[in-house]
Amino acid sequence: MSAGAGGRGEPSRTGGGGSRKLIIEADGGSRGNPGPAGYGALVRDALTGEVLAEVAESIGHATNNVAEYQGLIAGLTAAAAIDPSARVEVRMDSKLVVEQMSGRWKIKHPDMVPLALRARELAEGLGSVSYGWIPRNRNAHADRLANEAMDAAARGEHWTRKVEETPGESEPPPRPVSSTPMTTVLLRHGETPLSVEKRFAGTGDTPLTANGVAQARAAALALKDRGLDAIVTSPLSRCRGTAAEVAAVTGLDVRVEDGFREADFGRWEGLTFAEAGKGWPDELKAWLADPGAAPPGGESFAQVSRRVRTALDKLKVRYREQTVLVVSHVTPIKLLVKDALGAPMSSLYRMHLDVAALSSIDWYADGPATLRTFNDVHHLP
C-alpha cells in the first residue's frame, strides 16, 4: 500500500506473534445416540505433522453431539497446554460442531449451549482458532481414540487416555531444536507513481518509476554480500521488478509467492485517503478500526493476515535455517513484523515503512522470533 507512505494507512491484525501453528483433530460419538459415549482428540504440529498430545475419555451415557463437543474442548485444552499463543486449526468430521463454532449455524439445543460457550472461552485464550470440516476417513486417528472410549463406556468403565508433549521420566527426551533460525530479509518494492502521490496501491499492477528502479538497484548492491540463499517475491510487477535487480546481482532465481501480495483495496485503488474518506466515510472509519472490515469490493486485513501467515509457513518448511529475501509490500511486511514482536494491532499505526526499505526477522524452529532491523534505508541515495 502506498497511501500514507507506510503511516496510518496499513493497519492489520494477527494474534500470537511468532507463534507456532497447531492442528487439532477431534471426534466423539455414542452407541445408540444417546448411549455409551466417549471422545478422542489429538494435537499435531502443523509443519512436521508430529503428534504432540492425545486425549480420550469415556463419558458415560450421552449423545453424539455432546461427545463431539467434549472432544473439541479436550483438544483446545491440550493445545493451550502446549502453546497458549498458538494459531490453531480445528479439523472435525462433525459438520454441526464446525458450523456452530464458525458462527454460521445457531445453537438451538440447550445441552449444546454451555459446551459451545466453554469451547469459545478456550478458543479466545489461544492466538487464533479456525474450524474446518473433514470427511471421517481423514479423521481416523481421533475416531479410533473415540471408539476406544466408547468401548470402555459400553463396559461401564471410566477410561481416560492422556499423552502430552512434556515427557515424563519413563518417556524419551524431546528431540533437539535447532538454534539456527530461518531469516527473512524483507524488502519493500521501489517507488511507483502511486507511492509518490500517497495513493492506495493494492493488487493493481503498478510498475516502478525510473527512481524506483534506481532504488531497487541500490538495495540489490546492499544485499550482494548478505549471504542470501533464495529470493521470494509478490507476484505484482513492482515487486518482481525489484526482485529482478537483486537476482541480477546475486545470481539467484526468483520464486513467486502469491501470499505476499499487497491487500486488495477494491474501489479505493488509486485514490488518496482524502478521496476515499469523501466517498466512503463510514467504510474508511470501520476499516481503520476493525481488521475484519474490508474496503468496498476489497480484502480485509484479517484475510491478508491469514494468507501471509500461510506464506510464511511455506518458507519455514522450504528454507529451514536459510536466509530468504522476501520482496513485498507495506501490509505484508508490517504483518510479519507485528507477528515477530507479538505486538497489538495498534502497533501497525506506529510503524513507518519507506519504499525500498530493508527489515529482517529471525524465525526459530521452536516458535520465538526476533526482529533484527526495521526500515533500513542507508543504501538509498
Describe the structure.
By secondary structure, the chain is of the alpha/beta class. Helices cover 35% and strands 22% of the residues. It contains 11 helices and 12 strands. A hairpin with a 4-residue loop joins strand 1 and strand 2. About 7% of the residues have low confidence.
Could you report the average pLDDT, rounded to the nearest whole number?
87
Global outline: elongated
Global structural class: alpha/beta
Give the neighbour order of strands across the main sheet: 5-4-1-2-3-6
CATH structural class of the largest domain:
Alpha Beta
Give a topology summary:
Elements: E1 21-30, E2 35-45, E3 51-62, H1 64-82, E4 87-92, H2 95-101, H3 112-124, E5 128-133, H4 140-154, E6 160-163, E7 182-188, H5 193-196, H6 210-223, E8 230-233, H7 237-250, E9 254-256, H8 273-279, H9 281-289, H10 301-318, E10 323-328, H11 330-341, E11 358-363, E12 369-376
Parallel strand pairs: 1-4, 4-5, 7-10, 8-9, 8-10
Antiparallel strand pairs: 1-2, 2-3, 3-6, 7-11, 11-12
Helix pairs in contact: 1-3, 6-7, 8-9, 10-11
